[in-house]
Amino acid sequence: MTDDEAKLWLHEALSVSRETFEKLDAFRAMVVAENQQQNLISTASLDHIWVRHIADSAQLLLLAGATHDGLWLDLGTGAGFPGLIIAILRDAPIIFVESRRKRIDFLVESASRLCLPHVRVEGCRLETVETVPVKVISARAFAPLPRLFALAHRFSTEKTLWLLPKGQSATEELESVAGSWQGSFHVKPSVTDVQSNIIVAQSIRRVGKK
């Protein structure tokens, strides 16, 4: 997928309006500018942000389906992917969890400049965030699956949907939790990279616990 194809996909798959495209492009420019101050994304991906980061993040909305209007929790938001893209594309509340000071500042400033009042940035480690039930949990390069489930399970209910981009390691990571976690697990191919996959999970529970 090229950047032009990514933009076309956003229009066709998500019916992204011109105003929303402008916000997405404004955020793209913010990331490029800030990348000169801190390493938000790899230099190699700077010329392919629409594919590698924007469309790659936006596809989670399609997987979220009817649950995407509820409270969304994005772990390790970092440069804003997928969390800030999700926030641009929908008006429902979303919580970003990010512990790195410079990235916290960048997320807060970006949400303010893009007029996204439904964004809440938790600038701390996940362990110290107050427990609240959420509809969707997303995490892109936050932690291996065993640690991710252990840390974030307290925010989930039986209906919480987990959307976890895992690249080529999805199947291997699911195997790593087979003896300790149960639930409904599916591996979905990424629309932006044929070699990448997304783990979609629900009804997650520890083995031996209801």
Structure description:
This protein has helices at residues 3-14, 18-34, 49-64, 83-89, 101-113, 145-152, 170-176; strands at 72-75, 94-97, 119-122, 136-139, 161-167, 181-189, 197-206. The model has no long low-confidence stretch (mean pLDDT 93). The chain contains 7 helices and 7 strands; from the N terminus they run αααβαβαββαβαββ. The longest helix has 17 residues, at 18-34. Strands 3-2-1-4-5-7-6 form a 7-stranded mixed β-sheet, sandwiched between helices. The protein is α/β, with parallel strands linked by helices.
What is the topological layout?
Blueprint: H1 3-14, H2 18-34, H3 49-64, E1 72-75, H4 83-89, E2 94-97, H5 101-113, E3 119-122, E4 136-139, H6 145-152, E5 161-167, H7 170-176, E6 181-189, E7 197-206
Parallel strand pairs: 1-2, 1-4, 2-3, 4-5
Antiparallel strand pairs: 5-7, 6-7
What's this, in brief?
This protein has 210 residues and is α/β, with parallel strands linked by helices.
User: Which series of helices and strands comes N to C?
Assistant: HHHEHEHEEHEHEE
pLDDT below 50 for ≥5 consecutive residues: which ranges?
A: none
- Give helix % range: 25-40%
For the biggest β-sheet, the strand order reads 3-2-1-4-5-7-6
Beta-strand content bin: 15-25%
- Give the structural class: alpha/beta
What oligomeric assembly is this protein in? single chain
| Mean pLDDT score | 93
The count of DSSP E runs of length 2 or more, i.e. the number of strands, is: 7
Query: What can be said about the biggest beta sheet?
Result: 7 strands, mixed
Number of helices: 7
Shape type:
globular
| Rg (CA only) | 16 Å
Instruction: Calculate the terminal CA-CA distance, rounded to whole Å.
Output: 42 Å
